[in-house]
Amino acid sequence: MNIIDLNCDLGESYGLFKIGNDKEILKHISSANIACGYHAGDHNVMMETVKLAKKYHVRIGAHPGFPDLAGFGRREMNINPTEIYNLILYQIGALAAIAQAQGVTLVHVKPHGALYNMASNSRSIAVAIAQAVADYDSRLILVGLSGSELIQAGKEKGLLTASEVFADRTYQPDGTLTSRSEQNSMIHDVKFAAERLIRMVKEGKVTATDGTDIDICADTICVHGDEPDALDFSKELKKALLKENIGIRKCW
Question: How far apart are CA 206 and CA 118, in angstroms?
Fold first, then answer.
C-alpha cells in the first residue's frame, strides 16, 4: 500500500480578515503549514490554528514567507540570503513558542509563495533557508518542490526532506510550477486533479503544460487553504486516493 502525506497551508487569516475554512479542512489532512505572521496570520490566528491542529491530531509545520501582508507573500522581494536566514529563524521561533505552550512540537518547515518559488531555483536562497532550519532544529523536515534546489540544499545540510507535489497547480516542462499570472496555473476540476495526483504517486510522472511527461517525487501533497474550493478538494482527493489504495497518514 502506498502512503502519502496530505498537507494544507492554513492559519492565513489576519485580524478581522478571514481566509479559508481551517477547522473543516483539518479534518481531512495529515499536516498543516501554519502562517507565521509575515505573509499572513497573526499571534491570535497562530494560537487558534495550533489548537485546532492539536485537536484533530494533525502535524504542525511552520510556513514562513516574505514580509508582505498586502501581497500575501506572493510577490518576489530582493532580499539577500543573510536576511532570508534571519526572517526564517524569526518566524519558526514565533510558531514554535505557541506550539510549545500548547504541548505540541513543530515537525516541518515549508516556505510560502514567492519565497518557496525562488528557493526552488536559487541556490543561495535555498541554502539560507536550509541553514536556518538546521540551525534551529536539525530534526525538522524541510518541505520543498520536488526536484528543487531547496530539497538539494536540505539534504546537503543533513536535514530530512519531503518532496512536495501540487494537486491544484500545473507544471512547466522544467518541473517548476506555472506562474499564477498565467491563466492555466490553477486546476479547479477535482476529478482531473485526482487523476494527475494518483499518477504522480504511483508512477512518479506528471504531464507538463506542453504535453510532455516529467519525473516527479511525491512525499507530500499540497492543497492551498486560501482557495475557495480547498475543502472540497481535500475531501475528494482523500476519497480518490483511498479508493486507489493510497493511504493518507503521518508518513514522515
Answer: 21
Q: Nearest to residue 11, comparing CAs of 133, 99, 118, 135?
A: 99
In the chain the domains, ranked by start, together with CATH numbers, are 2-248 (3.20.20.370)
Q: Across the chain, what does the average pLDDT equal? A: 92
Closest listed residue to residue 22, CA positions, set 62, 64, 63, 50: 50
Instruction: Return the higher-pLDDT residue of 92 and 19.
Output: 92
Kindly give the residue spans of alpha helices, DSSP state H, lying in 157-214: 190-203
Cα distance between residue 206 and residue 230, in whole Å: 21
The DSSP-derived string for 55-105 is HTT-EEEEE---S-TTTTT-S-----HHHHHHHHHHHHHHHHHHHHHTT--
> What are the phi and psi torsion angles at 143 (to 5°)?
-100, 130
**pTM strictly above 0.70:** yes
On the question of pLDDT at 248 being above 90, the answer is no
Is the Cβ–Cβ distance between 170 and 188 less than 8 Å?
Answer: no
- Residues sharing a CB contact under 8 Å with residue 26, sequence separation 6 or more, in sequence order: 8, 10, 32, 52, 53, 55, 56, 58
Determine the Cα–Cα distance for residues 135 and 123; give it in Å rounded to an integer: 18
